[in-house]
């Protein structure tokens, strides 16, 4: 009897594990949602053998994601908006959304990485607004090799940053636009 209970428990556990793995695979192959970047910042001034000891990862209330447009699986419909600069209204986009500030070290490296299975963006359109009212915009290519985000210097103590990730096909037609917002405070 005891042996049957253990066997049944083992079969039930394996069934649950198989169900979980299957549902995870279905979720990861779902192309209806744009890939979500992982934003992190590394303190490059500290002497350490590994960057992990000096890394801050923007998660939970430290980042806000807004999927503007995504046609990752059906590439017949393309984004019609402008792609020359980041024209997002940061204040309006973050209205009623909590966003905590992460550290901006004096000597830092900020990067945005995506899952290895995810489609990678082609461009990043950035916009920075500091607490003194200064605004900067920039455009850069996205390279998965280093995934570095080059944010401009700013005069204030804190800044809100909007990173607009752009996915382009081989014909330069846009099939994906995602805004990610972070806030940083100088250390």
From TrEMBL:
It comes from the Bacteria. PROSITE patterns: PROKAR_LIPOPROTEIN. This is Lipoprotein. It comes from Bacillus thuringiensis.
